[in-house]
Amino acid sequence: MNELDTLVEAARSAFAAAKTPAELENAKAQFLGKTGSITALMKGMAALSVEQKKSQGAAINLVKQGIEAALAERRQQLADVELDLQLRAEALDVSLPGRKRVPGGLHPVSRTMERIEAIFSSMGFDVADGPEIESDWHSFTSLNNPPNHPARSMQDTFYVDIEGEDGTPYNLRPHTSPMQVRYAHQHIKKHAAAFEAAAADSSGTLKAPEIRVIAPGRTYRVDSDATHSPMFHQCEGLWLGENVSFKDLKVVFTDFCRTFFETDDLVLRFRPSFFPFTEPSAEIDIQFQSGPLADRWLEVAGSGQVHPKVVRNMGLDPERYIGFAFGMGPDRLTMLRYGVNDLRLFFDGDLRFLSQFQ
Ligand code: PHE
């Protein structure tokens, strides 16, 4: 074999030794690069005669083609290996069992909330949402419960390490009642023209626009046992107008309870009570006339006629606006509806318990 023939063989084995595309490019340079063997052979032809140039040139070209062919072949091999590795790495094991997706469902308390919203919406109540971190003014003072008033100790409030503009700390709202004044302000602002027109009408022929809302949500108190959780739910109700009376409260709340529990076999009792923001005030108890809970009085809400000071804090004239408010416990309603006797079960997140309600 002459020098030219061995060159193709040398290239072939150098290419075979290259294990990666980068190594292959290095090997290629030894033969086809600027300082490679083929280039050197070409340069060497300068000294040859025309005849010799012809035959030597043809021979070198053949060798060059041989090396290029070997290079292309090795490139393809390396590309195949790489593709193969990639396919293996990305392979799906179709014999693995699939991951099970368990159908989710609504929490029983969420179901109650939805029921409450649906029932009150059907009675023309708006549904409002408000902050859980509340100012002292909204949670207490605006509700006729000034600083140092003993009624503040009715609620063991959590305070937050942030001070409001008036220097008092924010609180985790201990009830949804701050939504009374908060919503009234929003609502009056939104319908300012109607409220102003009614207020300016001294003849009293323009009927004053009403405020009719429920505000469900989370509330917080330092309290924990079978029937109290530091986080619990409340739903506030408020109906203010020119002629909204305690009778309306009785009708609305009785209707609500009968619809919620899907029975007319149920009576209500309004038991005198005290709240700073209502006067008179009443606890609402219900009693089923049949079934497992029959003959027991069960407390479901606090209520009363909205105190004139609260009406004034809403920016309304208590001589003109009168109405009622109530605050009920959706957690308690859920316990009664499903016959659950420990409130903590609702917040433990145990699916063995929760999935029973789906
Ligand atoms: N906010 C009172 C409570 O948490 C309930 C209530 C609301 C009472 C509205 C009267 C009117 O106990």
Describe this structure in words.
The protein is of the alpha+beta class and 358 residues long. It folds into two domains: 2-89; 108-357, Bira Bifunctional Protein, Domain 2 (BirA Bifunctional Protein, domain 2, 2-Layer Sandwich), CATH 3.30.930. Helix content is 42%, strand content 20%. A seven-stranded mixed beta sheet has the order 1-5-6-10-9-8-7, sandwiched between helices. A three-stranded antiparallel beta sheet has the order 2-4-3. Helix 1 (3-17) runs antiparallel to helix 2, helix 2 packs antiparallel against helix 4 and helix 5 packs across helix 11 (330-338). The longest helix is centred in the N-terminal third of the chain and has 40 residues, at 50-89. The protein starts with a helix and ends with a helix. The model has no long low-confidence stretch (mean pLDDT 93). Bound molecules: phenylalanine.
Question: Which features characterize this protein?
Answer:
single chain; 358 residues; alpha+beta; BirA Bifunctional Protein, domain 2; seven-stranded mixed sheet; three-stranded antiparallel sheet; 42% helix; binds phenylalanine
From the 3D coordinates, which CATH architecture of the largest domain would you assign?
2-Layer Sandwich
Across the major sheet, the strand order is: 1-5-6-10-9-8-7
For the sheet with most strands, the description reads: 7 strands, mixed
Q: Helix tally?
A: 12
Radius of gyration: 42 Å
Poorly predicted spans: none
- Whole-number total of structural domains: 2
SSE succession:
HHHHHEEHEEHHEEHEEEHEHH
Strand residue percentage: 15-25%
Bound molecules: phenylalanine
The CATH class of the largest domain is: Alpha Beta
- How many β-strands, per DSSP? 10
Q: Could you name the CATH topology of the largest domain?
A: BirA Bifunctional Protein, domain 2
Q: Given the C-alpha coordinates, what overall shape results? A: elongated
Mean pLDDT: 93
> How far from one another are the termini?
86 Å
